[in-house]
Fold this sequence. Notes:
Layout: E1 7-9, E2 12-13, H1 20-43, H2 49-75, H3 86-96, H4 100-128, H5 132-169
Antiparallel strand pairs: 1-2
Helix pairs in contact: 1-2, 1-3, 1-4, 2-5, 4-5
Amino acid sequence: MAPDTQMKAPGQPAPHQTNYQDRLFTQLAAAGGAAEVEFGKLAKKSGNSAVTAFAGRMVDNHSAANARLKSLAETNKIPLPEGLDEEHERKRTELEKLDGAKFDLAYISGQITDHQKTVQLLEWEIGSGQDADLQHFASETLPTVLEHLQLARDIKADLASQAIAGATSAPTKK
Length: 174
């Protein structure tokens, strides 16, 4: 049992409480979801239509998922983090300093990393969680996150192709 397990009697957990995995999953997923919305809003400044379309989709999809997760957290009395955590705050600061192709590449690369982590987190909840509603949420959310991951990978490949094409077509100085 986790150290914060509420007890009905010594050695007997109180009924209807989430386990440690459910609480940790909910808090990590909420922090990641909030960051996706924040970064998506920031990425709307991109001049690349694929990046801005992806960013808009992140804001829409993650806002909806965040609202559903918040409702589940309230039902289970799981406190959610306020604002961005330290890691995501650092990423936002880095992104705010960039623009153009450097911004696009940094944003999309970060999206790939974040979505890979989210896939692992969702799979962990599906396998280790005890709350059926949270497991159901994770199961329903996983295909969308995998789709986001593939979209981000495709956009990164396009950005790399554009960078290579731009580098090879630039005149060389002799």
